[in-house]
Specification:
CATH topology of the largest domain: Bacterial polysaccharide co-polymerase-like
Largest sheet: 4 strands, antiparallel
Radius of gyration: 50 Å
Number of domains: 3
Helix content: 55-70%
Number of helices: 13
Structural class: alpha+beta
Order of helices and strands: HHEHHHHEEHEEHHHHHEHEE
Shape: elongated
Distance between the termini: 23 Å
Strand order of the largest sheet: 2-3-1-6
Number of strands: 8
């Protein structure tokens, strides 16, 4: 079908096309007059997910941003957020809302406020518009109600987010506090068990860290090993050199006792350990000084040190199993202390978070009353109805022409080889031409032979 044939069909069916366009136009115009306008107001909040947490200082995981936005969108429609909007809009005393609620299906067993909260949720939409800006929209048939609804939704959402954060932090803080108290009790029990074992076996561990724990006998053995190694050279240089290491160790212990006397009580395990260590080292120093005053020979001094070393070594070897068990008790004490420290720190952080005033988002701008309805868009509906009518008219015209095909020109015969055109006869209607003299002349029809 050529373009001239198509145009002839449209011109022949112009009444059908025009009728469809007119009817759809009238239908669209009637819709714009009958449908109640719907206004839409928007409010915005900025999510502080790019800032570190005010309590822990940790940054948010942006890989979970999509799930976080979906969660916030659903929380916005929760009854704890929509309920205050119902109260602010005054729907609880609205006669129309009361009548609609009384006409609800019998299967709907919700109370009036929750039923209205669902209507608020149905009119609410939310989306992430740019970066971390979260936009909340509320629609209503009245512009002022739309503004109040959007503003109250944002305020209620911020209040709910803050209350939820505080509630979760307070609940977790209480749990961590309970665990910290249990860890403290276990640490005290472990410390008491260690002290009891030390009293029963006469073994005292020295040092503050788990990796530096050492009993007094092992410390004395280490000192005697050092003296035995330095005894030959010290005996040649000075008779009293043998006692220099023990004297220095005794001075260090006295300094530690003086330093901790004000901070620790006399019955503190560390103070008792230092006093026991000082007694042992003082005996060694006294023996060495007595031997030095007696003026023993170099060989006798070396032999005395060697004999003391062997005795101390035998004593340490004999107590190896007890020392190992004491170290295990000390490890248990260190473990319980570390557990208590971590749980107490976490409980303190959560307690601090339970009192924060930051909901994790900030309100942006003010909510303005919409001046134009978001629906219906009269211009769009009218233009769309006209376009729809023209399209329907074109389709209907082509359909009618295909069902009742006519020959409207010589081009319509070119597709059939069994038909031959003999002549093309012009219209028999007379054509009138206005002449300069005012007269009219009738032109006879002209025929042509093919």
């Amino acid at each position: 079908m050529s373009i001239i044939q198509f145009l002839r069909i449209l011109w022949a069916r112009r009444v059908v096309i025009a009728a469809c366009a007119i009817f759809t136009f009238l239908g669209g115009f009637a819709v714009t007059l009958a449908v109640a306008p719907r206004y839409e107001a928007t409010s915005r909040v900025m999510l502080n997910i790019l800032k570190p947490d005010v309590v822990t200082g940790e940054d948010a995981n942006l890989r979970n941003l999509g799930a976080y936005i979906d969660t916030q969108r659903e929380l916005l429609k929760d009854y704890r957020v929509t309920g205050p909007v119902v109260d602010e809009l005054g729907w609880l005393s609205d006669p129309r809302k009361i009548a609609e609620y009384q006409a609800r299906p019998a299967t709907d067993t919700r109370d009036f406020r929750r039923w209205l909260g669902q209507q608020v949720a149905d009119r609410t939409t939310a989306k992430l518009v740019s970066g971390t800006i979260f936009e909340i929209s509320f629609s209503s048939n009245f512009p002022e109600e739309a503004r109040v609804g959007a503003d109250t939704l944002r305020r209620s959402f911020l209040d709910y987010s803050l209350a939820s954060r505080r509630q979760d932090a307070a609940k977790n803080a209480q749990w961590y506090s309970t665990q910290a108290e249990a860890a403290r009790n276990l640490a005290e029990q472990a410390q008491l068990a260690k002290a009891k074992y030390e009293r029963e076996n006469g073994i005292v561990m020295q040092g503050d860290q788990a990796g530096a724990q050492q009993d007094v006998d092992s410390a004395r053995l280490a000192a005697l090993v050092g003296q035995a190694a330095a005894a030959p050279a010290a005996a040649m240089s000075a008779p009293l050199a043998l006692s220099s290491t023990s004297s220095l160790q005794l001075a260090q212990i006295d300094a530690a006792i003086a330093q901790n006397a004000d901070k620790l009580g006399p019955n503190h395990p560390q103070m008792r350990q230092l006093r026991a260590q000082r007694s042992l080292v003082a005996n060694v120093v006294a023996q060495e000084q007595a031997a030095a005053r007696a003026g023993p020979s170099n060989t006798a001094a070396i032999a005395a040190v060697s004999q003391a070393l062997q005795e101390q070594k035998a004593r340490v070897i004999g107590q190896r199993d007890k020392i190992e068990h004491l170290r295990q008790l000390q490890s248990e004490v260190d473990l319980r202390r570390e557990q208590y420290k971590k749980t107490a720190e976490r409980a303190a952080e959560l307690t601090l978070e339970a009192g924060v005033a930051d909901p994790g988002m900030n309100a942006i701008g003010v909510v303005v009353t919409p001046s134009e309805p978001a629906f219906p868009n009269k211009r769009l509906i009218i233009l769309g109805s006209i376009g729809l009518g023209l399209g329907m008219g074109l389709v209907l015209a082509i359909l009618v022409e295909l069902l009742n095909r006519r020959v409207r020109g010589i081009e319509d015969l070119s597709g059939d080889d069994n038909l031959y055109c003999l002549a093309v006869v012009a219209s028999a209607a007379p054509r009138r031409r206005r002449r300069f003299g005012g007269g009219r002349k009738q032109r006879p029809p002209v025929g042509a032979m093919a």
